[in-house]
Amino acid sequence: MSKNCTCNQTNGDCCFSCCSNKNFVQDQVCCEWKTTSQTGLATTRTIYINSLKCPLFASGFVKYGCGVPNTPIQVQFLINGTVVGSPITLDEGGCLTFTAARFDEIQVIIPAALLTTATFEGEICVTPRYRLN
Question: Which of 2, 56, 119, 121 has a CA-to-CA distance to 111 between 20 and 30 Å?
Fold first, then answer.
């Protein structure tokens, strides 16, 4: 039984699921992230972004190593600047593992500092897979 699939590269469809020509590249990017909260303002920082022309399929993790005790952060995935799904809350010392499709950016949202600024740190590791043309 053959699958009927039309790949549409003009709208960013990378044809991961059903086209016969599947030459993929897989790599891994891991690094630490660090940002400072601002008094009275939530801080959004991009911790991963790709420069490819189509959305990725990837797995990985985001770790929130240290910050302000009892102060969770949020992690969100975006495509072309638009948030995909709902932000995910992550407590200090926690780790979020993911397998996600159709995104090109990952951000952390640090809550506003009440009295003074504070440093938040963690780690990110992303293993993207994308098709070679």
Answer: 56
